[in-house]
Amino acid sequence: MTEHAGRGGFCCSSHSGTENAQAILDLAEARAKDRNVRLTPVRRRTLEILLQAHGALGAYDVLERLAVEGFGTQPPVAYRALNFLVENGMAHRIRRLNAFTACAHPAEDHRAAFLICEACDSVTEAAAGGVNAALNAAADAVGFALDRATIEAVGLCRACQGAQA
Amino acid sequence: MTEHAGRGGFCCSSHSGTENAQAILDLAEARAKDRNVRLTPVRRRTLEILLQAHGALGAYDVLERLAVEGFGTQPPVAYRALNFLVENGMAHRIRRLNAFTACAHPAEDHRAAFLICEACDSVTEAAAGGVNAALNAAADAVGFALDRATIEAVGLCRACQGAQA
DNA sequence: CCTTGACTGTTATGATATAACGTTAGATAG
DNA sequence: CTATCTAACGTTATATCATAACAGTCAAGG
Q1: Residue A18 has pLDDT above 60, yes or no
Q2: Per-residue pLDDT for A58 more than 90?
Q3: Are residues A46 and A76 in the same domain?
Q4: What CATH number is attached to the domain comprising A73?
Q5: Inter-chain contact B139–A155, Cβ cutoff 8 Å?
Q6: Cβ-based contacts of B135 with chain A (< 8 Å)
Q7: A22 and A100, same structural domain?
Q8: Binding residues for Zn(2+), per the UniProt record (chains A, B) (predicted)?
Q9: A125 domain residue, yes or no
Q10: pLDDT tens-digit map of A101-136
Q11: Contact B115 A144 (CB under 8 A)
């Protein structure tokens, strides 16, 4: 993985590119104010980069872009900004890809599920209400106090199913 | 993470240590025969190590033990054995911990959910039937062909809830 | 002004994972 | 039984992902 413009060429879902980007940034801004945290330039720019990427980006991909724009050049710069975004519900970490993606629905304080396409690496954020309910039930059954969860599904997105020859 | 004997001191669940280990190994053996794959010495020993560990182990932890016993000393040795076990349903990869754990119920061709305790790092394999049903529904809703999923919940196991002072 | 605390950037290093290649050993065809 | 083929093993080397620790910056409040 030495040169790629991001994992996820297509996006099968709702947050298609730049059109919603401004709205999401505004929501992030508002949320920051609510929570009394600061959406500083690096953090904001990092979120923009994720929004533009339109797919999951590795921390080093983000870093590369930040560096070009005059922000810091070393890994912690990217990791700190990304962790901030994740902690504040503005982005998600996709562990299977060692990557990050902007949250498509920052308004809801949801627990999301991700659908990762094996063919094109696109990541779709899916409604996870039912999944979380079921998970809560399973946790309750064994007396586990659930805090948060990572739900990542792997398969083929609609677009790539057609392309399967 | 330079010296530890494994992540997961306690185990809140069913596969408590060595008692079931033999049964699980037997199942693995049978499964290997079924699938026409070979449970070679390294692979078998790797599974035993996971079973003994009674919690998730990192690849390098496994490697260390294999090396001591005269198997290879380099990372691919561990990764290959672990990947084999995962691919054949004999172990699971816990991405949040960058670790692996023996499958507690190798007979069923299930998709498992994991409950990871933040306090003691124990990993419990939970029944995930309902969760998977819900996930399938969510995937269907957007036309995503789901192959497999990673479901990892973070919280406090029953034992550690009491210990919260 | 001066302290304080959050933020940024850096150096350095740690931790996880895989590519590529030669060798070994188990299976199979002759 | 032997030649051959392939899966598996072990190695070297390197890629990739992530964090610890510390120094400089800057805005807010005393």
Answers
A1: no
A2: yes
A3: yes
A4: 1.10.10.10
A5: yes
A6: 113, 131, 151, 153
A7: yes
A8: 117, 120, 157, 160
A9: yes
A10: 999 887 766 678 999 999 888 999 998 889 999 999
A11: yes
- Whether A122 and A157 have beta carbons less than 8 Å apart is answered as yes
Using pLDDT thresholds of 50, 70 and 90, give the confidence band for residue B121.
confident
The counts of H helices and E strands in chain B are 6, 5
- Nearest by CB to residue B113, choosing from A126, A135, A154, is A135
Instruction: Give the helix/strand (H/E) hosting A129.
Output: helix A129-141
What pLDDT band is residue B164 in, cutting at 50, 70 and 90?
low
Is the predicted pLDDT of residue B3 greater than 50, yes or no? Answer: no
CB contact under 8 A, B151 and A155: no
Whole-number Å distance, CA A56 to C1' C11? 28
In Å, what is the separation between the CA of B104 and the C1' of D24?
A: 52
Domain membership of residue B45 as a residue range: 13-106
d(CA A45, CA A43): 5
Say which of B127, B138, B143 has its CB closest to residue A127.
B138
Which token pair is A22?
Answer: 């401004």
Give the residue among B126, B127, B148, B146 at the shortest CA–CA distance from B138. B146
Q: Is the same domain home to A27 and A79?
A: yes
Is 80 exceeded by the pLDDT of residue A27?
Answer: yes
